[in-house]
């Protein structure tokens, strides 16, 4: 098949993990794939123009993509999330008119802020691909042709390394994400401040922008910021001894796809996460990770892993097995191929 992927941006997490990882695998199977990222990236825009005014150059770029799609006669057009963060659905409708098949991929609760827009896009599509079962349950109300393909990792890049016991440096507690999600990390600052002073801890933060002062002034813990870099991402994550994924128990967080946890598990980093949404499906407490729902639970979980290297190794081994079984690109590319073939047949 000839497949056109319309994505949010080259370095936007949803584009990298929902689309770009799969392209080489689909091409190995004989499909011709073209990726057309938003220009400038969706949700951010050009700093000197602002996100709202950046919709104008985005529209210009999508017009060129539309002309290319009309000329090239793609079999399937895949829209990652939505083409514009505003209420515009004009371009999706135009792509639907010229493409035999339209597939919508959703990995977040984008419908919470714009339910009418999502309804339009879902009903417009031959198939909706949902990143988890909660998103699928919502989508099925608009389009019964909804399929779950979980957010996955290319394990050829994520080499597993079991935890090691090193007494010559602090226990590194790690968090990675976009700067817009810093409030999530802020949920556990009380727990971090209450960790015993006789244990040497470091909080390592990886994001595209420096964290606010409330995350860097923890008194008893050294905090180190590591600017996110696509080429160093996996190497930087390997510095974590324990991976953290706190989430608020709210509607938006419940639709998250657990990417942080999956990255930790794939690399052999034992994870602690809030039991919110898909986190409780990925992690089974005390089997392949730890779940914490209060300040006391976070303190206990961190101290247990810091003190018990055998527990860290046990959780790391089971965590990697979880990713291999359910959340690998190598496994789920077959699901993508089946979805694209099925959608094209409808």
Brief summary:
By secondary structure, this protein is of the alpha/beta class.
Descriptive account of the structure:
Helices cover 41% and strands 17% of the residues. The strands form 2 sheets. Strands 2-1-3-4-5-6 form a 6-stranded parallel beta sheet, sandwiched between helices. Strands 9-8-7-10-11-12 form a 6-stranded parallel beta sheet, sandwiched between helices. It has 346 residues and is of the alpha/beta class. It folds into 2 domains: 2-152 and 329-345, Glycogen Phosphorylase B (Rossmann fold, 3-Layer(aba) Sandwich); 171-326, Glycogen Phosphorylase B (Rossmann fold, 3-Layer(aba) Sandwich), CATH 3.40.50. It is built from 16 helices and 12 strands. It holds the Pfam family Glyco_trans_1_4. Keywords: Transferase. GO terms for molecular function: transferase activity. This is Glycosyl transferases group 1.
Write the layout of secondary structure elements.
Elements: E1 2-7, H1 13-20, H2 23-28, E2 32-37, H3 55-72, E3 76-80, H4 90-98, E4 101-106, H5 115-124, E5 127-130, H6 133-139, E6 146-148, E7 171-176, H7 182-186, H8 189-193, E8 201-207, H9 213-216, E9 222-227, H10 233-237, E10 242-245, H11 251-254, H12 259-267, E11 271-273, H13 279-282, E12 290-291, H14 295-307, H15 309-326, H16 329-345
Parallel strand pairs: 1-2, 1-3, 3-4, 4-5, 5-6, 7-8, 7-10, 8-9, 10-11, 11-12
Helix pairs in contact: 3-4, 12-15
